[in-house]
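Troubleshooting: if your tokenizer reports a length mismatch, compare your output against this known-good record of 310 residues.
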Amino acid sequence: MMRRKLPPLRALVAFEATARHQSVKDAAEELNVTQSAISHQLRQLEENVGVVLFVRKGRGLSLTKSARQLLPRLTAALDDISGITREIGPDKGRAIRIGALATPALSILIEELESLRRAIPDDIPVQFRKIEFDDDLDPLEIDIALQIAPKDLPGPEGWTMELLTPEIYHALVSPQWLERRGFSKNNVDLSRLEPRDILLIDSDSEQFSQIDSWFEKTNFALSDCWTFSHHIWALEAAREGHGIVASTDVVARKYVDRGELVALDFPDFMSSWWYRLLIRPSRERDPAVMAAANWIRDQIGLPARENMVL
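Known-good structure output:
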């Protein structure tokens, strides 16, 4: 059988809603995404099918002949898909889709999957999705998300957001590094440090001025130190005894709990970035989704709550 050549489903859904409303704004509100996300999907669909589907008319949109031909058949097809997916399978679409950045997923969530298993019914599947800092969260792909963002940055349109906790940075090192260098966690001779003793995370460059204050008595600049493009890489290098890393209490907690890293007697500092919990409003009344939200809060170190806050 010949493989079907199909446009992306999200682009078809965005087109159907936009054509039905003849409005990008109304389509975005219906699908709980941003208007820019809708516009991106429409451009992608037009490029895929090779025809123009909309013509701007004042503040609204006018459908081209091709769009008018596509709309009724696509609406019927999507209705059929929706009906079938509601009818089949034991979970009937109740899967919980959790989005998270790679660092908190690897350092916090994955190690505690057993507690999530205990928190939700056995017949509800969970799907984990990797997200990025600047992702437009797609409600067709994500139900609940753990993000890190500047505290004052508004949450994405159409999502319920709860600020959880700020990133608190600590200077961490392995016990074997301290023993090898003849230091203690309360007494590190900065004059004896070398650039390779400092393990920096280049994505945390906003924190470098604070980190620099820890090492102002050294004879080198942070620009001479070793850097890593991923937080986990730097933590693993510190765990293996290669130097001092600046990491947050949440991300490094498991390393500290296992005794693999210890905190030095350096001043802690708070970042302007916060962990925040995002949930799709249509799933807020789902007990299993709220149980997953409380599981995330617990991993961040916050008490469980019955309700989210805007």
